[in-house]
Each structure stands twice: as structure tokens, then as C-alpha cells.
Design goal:
Chain B: It is found in: Cell inner membrane. Chain B: This is Phosphate ABC transporter ATP-binding protein. Chain B: It comes from Cohnella luojiensis. The complex is a heterodimer of chains A (about 290) and B (about 250). Chain A has about 290 residues and is mostly helical. Chain A has helices at about 5-50, 55-60, 70-105, 110-120, 125-140, 145-170, 175-180, 185-215, 220-225, 245-250, 255-290. Chain A is flat and about 85 Å long. The N and C termini of chain A lie far apart (about 50 Å). Chain B has one domain: 3-Layer(aba) Sandwich (Rossmann fold). In chain B, the strands form two sheets. A six-stranded mixed beta sheet of chain B has the order 6-7-8-3-9-10, with helices on both faces. In chain B, strands 2-1-4-5 form a four-stranded antiparallel beta sheet, covered by helices on one side. The two termini of chain B are about 30 Å apart. Classes of the chains: A mainly alpha (about 290), B alpha/beta (about 250). Chains A and B meet through helix 7 and helix 8 of A and helix 2, helix 3 and helix 6 of B. The structure holds adenosine-5'-diphosphate and magnesium ion (MG). Adenosine-5'-diphosphate (ADP) binds near residues 19 and 57 of chain B.
Chain lengths: ~290, ~250
């Protein structure tokens, strides 16, 4: 300790370091709670459901007897829904985002629409179920069908996709648009050739994350009337259908222990699908980012 | 003096702010005209009126006229897309697209409908040669433009602008984000280009204006104070405010 630092300074610094250390522990604890919870969840599910991860799970239709029960129709139903929902919500979501960011005048009407979209993104999913029931099932008389479910889920994910696509479009630097305009591009040329390619990684990430939310969503489809006991694959849009979370929900609500294990196995499949989707989101992002 | 660009009594307002005041100025073809003046005096604003990039800023209003080769560029007969094809622009920050070097240069020609691969190849090579970048990139045209250095990126942006065959090239402090060596390369490049293009450059660097331009216009608070042959303006300015500025008394 020399002349120009006092013992007081030293004490204060030590104190601050102690606080720093304690906060660090606290933050670590916060992180671990999340991770530990997830780990416990996964471990208990795997322990419970692992023995039901067998071919019959994927090849059999639901059955009254756990030994023979599978979720073929639910898996196929989820995948069909995903395959239809993805392009529809991509087109409408990105279209709306382009309109709002690039074409709409920044006036009160636009701000009002914007506020509504952000609010819709937070509306409980059951409300979308009621909406879908009213519009698609009843009004358009599409019945309790695959197409009703798909369109309902599309409505559910649209606000999320619009908002995330808007963020991605907003993040494209202005000087990149200027470069395009300065070469004589018109608005659409600039949007399609300069803005969207730059925004695409963000847009795709948003779409895929919205899809993985929809894949796990149960409430609106219960409302629409997705069934749990489907022993055929939907062969047309107007066929009735089931999806994975509904099948899982059904199994869990049965009294028999075996069905609970079956549900755990179903959850594992669902989680695997979610992981796969998030992984493909990362791959897509990297592919598009090569030039960025 | 036969002027290619004739700016007449031009006023520009950003909402309430009057950024240009009665600017009257002729810019001769196939030479370099430099705009100098302290920051905020309206150099960029005036430059952007020449390719109508100001049109996109909400609340801008102009009066007065700008003629290029005798045509009023703000008249209904002129579409901005065509105007901007004839009047290229290079920005302060190099702003390549996140695409390959080739696709960056081909961007403009493709916009204007050129699809033929061989024709595009020719344009890309010619433009990169004009921008003195060809030798450095000819073997990796497919690589991302973002892998180039700042100076190379700026020359790529010049090549990209040249690829649509403009008559006029606007440069807004195109070297101010670059290191001295890259700056020098771009200055040399402008000397080669000035026999084929009419170049208007904004610079806050008076030495640069003196080195590269034939004519210099000095602005202050949105007003054109003086425009003359570069040598004359620096050696013997006719307005005392010009003299104050170039001798470093303010700005
Ligand atoms: N988009 C804009 N909106 C409002 N005012 C602006 C805008 N761009 C520039 N200005 C104002 O116009 C004046 C001239 O700006 P600018 O042309 O950028 O000057 P310079 O390029 O000489 O530094 C400044 O007072 C600036 O604040
Ligand atoms: Mg400027």
C-alpha cells in the first residue's frame, strides 16, 4: 500500500468484489434452476417412456390396450398440419410484414394495426380455437377437419410470424436499400432483391420457432375437435384428424399406469421433432448467412 | 463553360428546415467537381437532389430547377428509375449487398433487364476493370463481397455503380471511412474515370478536393458561397468566407 491509495479505498474495493462475487453466484443459481428443471423433466420422461419407444409407437393406431397402442395417426396428422401451415403462414405473414414495413404509411391507422397484431400475438390460444370453431368449422362448414385445424393454427402463428418478420426486415441497414434505389431499382425490386435476402435468416427463424410452438399447441385443437381415436390416416383435407399433443393429453388422462408411460414416449417423440425443427432453423440461418 | 448539370435557384426544405438556399450552379461534363464546406452545410443534400434520393425522405420539398443535359429531372417526363440509372451514386460507408462479388456488380444490369449470362460476364469484367479491382478479384468472383477489405468494397461499389453505364457519378465522402492507402487508390481511380464520367464528389477534406477536382464549390449554411476552378478557389478565393474556411479559420 503506497501513498496515494488509502486503506479506505482498499476496504471499499474488497467490499465491491464481495458483492460482485455474490451476484455472480445468484445469477448462476437463476440459470441452473431453469436447466435443472429441464434436466429433471427430460430424465423422468425418458425413464418413464423409454420402453415404449418401439416400432409400434410409430406404426400402430391408437388402441384401448396400451401394449398395442401407437400414435401413427397423430404423428402423421401433426406432420400434415405442419406441411400445410408452414407455407400458408409464411406467405401471409411475410406479406403482411412487407406491407407494414415497406409500403404502409406510418400513420395512425398503421400504428393501430400494429398494436393489434402485437396484442394478437399474446392472445391465449384457446381464443383462437373458439375463433376457428366459429369461422372454419361452422361458418365455412369445413367441419372438424384437418383443414379447419390447419387454418386455425395458421391464425394462431400469424401474429408471431408477422412481428418477427417485421423485426428482421427492420434490421436490414438503410444503406443497403439506398444502394439498390441508387442503381435505379423500384420499391419491389429493392424489397425482393436487397431487403428480403438479408432478412431471410431472421424471417425463417421466426417461422420455424412459430411452427414449433404450433406443433406443441393443444387447446385450440381441442376446441376445433381434433379427435384422439383416429384409426386411419387423413386422405383429404376434410377428414377428421389427430395431432401428437392431443394424443399425449388423452393418454395422460387415462387411469392406467401403462398409458402414462406411453404418453411419456409420445412426449419424447414430440421433443425430438421440436429439436429437429430448431436444429433446421439453425442450419437454414447458417446457410443464408454465408454471404452476410 | 458548357454545363451538363444546371442547378437553378434551388431551395430544399426538410419540413421547416431550409437546407439549401437559392443554389445556382453549373457542373461541366467529364470532369470532377468537388463540394466542400463545414459539416451540415448541405453538401450531401445537394448531391442527393441530383439523383432524387431526397424524394424518399418524408417531408422534403424543393423549388427551383435542376436540368441534366437540358432535361428538368424533376419534371413528370422523367422517371426516377431512369434518372438513377444515368446518375450513379457511391456512399460514405461501403455498402455492398450480402451477395457474391459478381452478383453485386450484376445487380444493376439485372434490374434493368439484362439476363444474358455472357453479356453479364462482360459487364462485370468491364466494370471491375474500370474500378481497378479486376486484378484483385478475378479468380474469386463467386466469393462474398463481405470478405473484401473496406477499400476493395468501396471500389466494388464504384464498379457496381458503373455497371449500369451512368453518365454521372456522385460520391458522398466516399473515402472518409477508408484508410489513407485505400483513399489514395480511390483518388487515383477518379482520375481515370473523369475522362469518361462527370463526377461530383462531396468531401470534407480540402486537400482531397485540391488534389482531385477541376472545380470546387464551397457551401455554408445551405448557400453556395463560391464555385470556381479548384486552383483558383484555393489560391485566390474571391469571397472572404471561402478564404476563412480554406485557411482553417473555422469548419
Ligand atoms: N433527413 C433529414 N431530415 C431533416 N434534416 C436533415 C436531413 N438530412 C439532413 N438534414 C439537415 O440538413 C442540413 C444539411 O445536411 P447535409 O446535407 O447532410 O450536410 P453535409 O453533407 O454538408 O454535412 C443539416 O442541417 C441537417 O441537419
Ligand atoms: Mg454529408
Amino acid at each position: 500500500m503506497n501513498q496515494w491509495t488509502t486503506a479506505d479505498d482498499h476496504k471499499r474495493v474488497l467490499m465491491r468484489r464481495r458483492i460482485d462475487f455474490m451476484l455472480r453466484l445468484l445469477f448462476l443459481l437463476c440459470t441452473s434452476i431453469g436447466i435443472v428443471a429441464l434436466a429433471v423433466l427430460i430424465v423422468s420422461i425418458v425413464v418413464d417412456g423409454f420402453r415404449y419407444i418401439r416400432p409400434e409407437l410409430f406404426l400402430n393406431y391408437p388402441s384401448r390396450r396400451a401394449a398395442q397402442a401407437g400414435m401413427k395417426s397423430a404423428i402423421v396428422g401433426s406432420i400434415y398440419m405442419l406441411l400445410m401451415m408452414a407455407p400458408i403462414s409464411f406467405v401471409f405473414g411475410v406479406g403482411a410484414a412487407i406491407y407494414l414495413e415497406e409500403y404502409a404509411k406510418k400513420n395512425r391507422a398503421t400504428r393501430f394495426i400494429q398494436l393489434n397484431i402485437s396484442t394478437l400475438a399474446g392472445v391465449p390460444s384457446i381464443v383462437y380455437g373458439i375463433l376457428g370453431l366459429t369461422i372454419f368449422v361452422r361458418f365455412f362448414a369445413l367441419e372438424r377437419s384437418l383443414i379447419s385445424g390447419t387454418l386455425t393454427m395458421t391464425l394462431l402463428v400469424l401474429p408471431v410470424i408477422i412481428v418477427s418478420a417485421q423485426e428482421a426486415i427492420k434490421a436490414v441497414p438503410k444503406i443497403r436499400r439506398d444502394a439498390s434505389f441508387a442503381l435505379g431499382a423500384d420499391k419491389w425490386q429493392t424489397v425482393s432483391r436487397a431487403v428480403l435476402p438479408s432478412a431471410m435468416p431472421g424471417i425463417l427463424t421466426g417461422v420455424i420457432l412459430a411452427m414449433s410452438r404450433a406443433i406443441g399447441e393443444t387447446a385450440p385443437l381441442v376446441m376445433i375437435g381434433a379427435l384422439t381415436y383416429i384409426s386411419f390416416l387423413p386422405s383429404s383435407l376434410k377428414d377428421s384428424f389427430s395431432v401428437m399433443p392431443i394424443q399425449i393429453f388423452n393418454w395422460i388422462s387415462r387411469p392406467q399406469e401403462e398409458f402414462h408411460s406411453l404418453a411419456a414416449a409420445g412426449i419424447m417423440v414430440l421433443l425430438a421433432l421440436l429439436l429437429l425443427m430448431n436444429f433446421s432453423a439453425i442450419l437454414l440461418r447458417n446457410k443464408f448467412q454465408k454471404h452476410i | 463553360m458548357e454545363a451538363l448539370i444546371e442547378i437553378n435557384e434551388l431551395n430544399l426544405y426538410y419540413g421547416e428546415v431550409r437546407a439549401l438556399r437559392n443554389v445556382t450552379l453549373g457542373i461541366p461534363e467529364r470532369s470532377i467537381t468537388a463540394f466542400i464546406g463545414p459539416s451540415g452545410c448541405g453538401k450531401s443534400t445537394l448531391l442527393r437532389t441530383l439523383n432524387r434520393m431526397n424524394d424518399m425522405i418524408p417531408g422534403t420539398r424543393i423549388d427551383g430547377s435542376i436540368k441534366i443535359a437540358g432535361t428538368d429531372i424533376y419534371s413528370n417526363q422523367v422517371d426516377v428509375e431512369t434518372l438513377r440509372k444515368r446518375v450513379g451514386m457511391v456512399f460514405q460507408q461501403p455498402n455492398p449487398f450480402p451477395k457474391s462479388i459478381y452478383d453485386n456488380v450484376a445487380y444493376g444490369p439485372r434490374l434493368h433487364g439484362i439476363r444474358d449470362r455472357k453479356k453479364l460476364d462482360e459487364i462485370v469484367e468491364a466494370s471491375l476493370r474500370s474500378a481497378v479491382l479486376w486484378n484483385e478479384v478475378q479468380h474469386h468472383l463467386k466469393r462474398s463481397a463481405f470478405g473484401l477489405s473496406g477499400g476493395q468494397q468501396q471500389r466494388l461499389c464504384i464498379a457496381r455503380a458503373l455497371a449500369v453505364e451512368p453518365d454521372i457519378l456522385l460520391m458522398d465522402e466516399a473515402t472518409s471511412a477508408l484508410d489513407p492507402i485505400s483513399t489514395l487508390k480511390i483518388e487515383e481511380l477518379t482520375q481515370e474515370l473523369k475522362d469518361r464520367y462527370t463526377i461530383v464528389m462531396v468531401t470534407h477534406n480540402m486537400q482531397q478536393a485540391a488534389r482531385v477536382s477541376q472545380r470546387t464549390a464551397f457551401f455554408l449554411n445551405g448557400e453556395l458561397i463560391e464555385c470556381a476552378e479548384t486552383q483558383k478557389l484555393f489560391a485566390n478565393p474571391s469571397n472572404p468566407r471561402t478564404e476563412d474556411y480554406i485557411s482553417g479559420r473555422f469548419g
